[in-house]
Automatic annotation (TrEMBL):
It comes from the Bacteria. Belongs to the ABC transporter superfamily. It comes from Candidatus Kutchimonas denitrificans. InterPro entries: AAA+_ATPase, ABC_transporter-like_ATP-bd, ABC_transporter_ATP-binding, DrrA1/2-like_C, P-loop_NTPase. The keyword Hydrolase does not apply. Pfam families: ABC_tran, DrrA1-3_C. One of its GO terms (molecular function) is ATP binding. Keywords: ATP-binding, Nodulation, Nucleotide-binding, Transport. Residues 9-236 form the ABC transporter domain. This is ATP-binding cassette domain-containing protein.
């Protein structure tokens, strides 16, 4: 399962344009083995184009692609599980039959695949639907079936494009747990999302794209440490009284209302104590004041604006 170079994915100098529109510009990406890496960015940033180049669905204008230690041969493809953003199942096929078919495409043993598929369907609460046609399932259920088809053959590399889109919170948590288990099994997971909160709860590494170019690349710990050192800090704040001082943009860069408290992003160069002093001078009764590291969402917004 180990890639000789220690990386499951290596892209170097990737560039892709569609006419006058630049989709990916001079993009590098290295994903170590047995790591969960998030490819993050707003819609239209270039995430799906990057994934399609990685999987040789489309060709790059220039640059090099290495997957699982070499070129993307048919043998290497069988070691990859891919969940595209645009889901695609055969609606007339029965669910279990469809999963066995997907396993066969990857060269898996039919009997073993069927046993695994039954176990997966039971785990994702779809066991009662095994003999139903795909078209009879809800959209969320179809998405779970396609996810099963992606992991069924125990791939070394999982490439998931917006895997949590359209799922309810319970199923999002279930799929996240499965992704963590796949990592523990030794698989590498690369998934794209525009949801920073989801990525923050699961990724060890993140790569952020904005307008076709990479703006951040590193472990989550490194990125948060750098943001803190650069002065990107926030305070979790709650208090009763006149809070109009929070409108002072020389003090506060932004405020997010989280219901029970406010997440206050400090302006450049402002220390948390300055915010507390302003609250005290305004006779605010402070019930919560907690200095917190910036969220991945806040880090990305700051980079995107820069």
């Amino acid at each position: 399962m180990n890639s000789p170079n220690g990386h499951a994915v290596r892209l170097q100098g990737i560039r892709k344009s569609y006419g006058s529109k630049l989709a990916v510009d001079d993009f590098d990406l290295e994903v170590p083995r047995a790591t969960i890496c998030g490819l993050l960015g707003p819609n239209g940033a270039g995430k799906t184009t990057t994934i399609r180049i990685l999987l040789d669905i489309i060709g790059a204008d220039r640059g090099s692609v290495e997957v699982l230690g070499g070129r993307l041969t048919p043998e290497v493809r069988d070691r990859i599980g891919y969940l595209p953003e645009e889901r695609g199942l055969y609606p007339k096929m029965r669910v279990l039959e469809h999963l066995v078919f997907l396993g066969a495409i990857k060269g898996a043993d039919r009997q073993e695949t069927e046993a695994r598929a039954v176990a997966w369907l039971d785990r994702l609460e779809l066991g009662a639907w095994a003999d139903k046609r795909v078209q009879d399932l809800s959209r969320g259920m179809q998405q779970k079936v396609q996810f099963i088809g992606t992991v069924l053959h125990e791939p070394e590399l999982l490439v998931l494009d917006e895997p949590f889109s359209g799922l309810d919170p319970l199923n999002v948590d279930l799929l996240k747990q499965i992704v963590l288990e796949e990592r523990d099994r030794g698989a590498t997971v690369l998934f794209s999302t525009h949801n920073m909160d989801q990525a923050e709860r699961i990724c060890e590494r993140v790569v952020m794209i904005r307008q076709a170019s990479k703006v951040l690349d590193g472990t989550l710990k490194e990125i948060k440490r750098d943001a803190w050192q650069e002065g990107q800090r926030r305070v979790l704040f709650a208090g009763d009284g006149d809070l109009s001082f929070l409108d002072d943009r020389s003090l506060v860069a932004g405020v997010q209302d989280n219901g029970t408290h406010l997440a206050v992003a400090l302006a450049d160069g402002v220390e948390p104590q300055e915010l507390l002093q302003r609250a005290i001078r305004a006779d605010v009764v402070v019930s919560r004041f907690e200095v917190s590291e910036p969220s991945l969402h806040e880090i990305f917004v700051a980079r995107a604006r820069g």
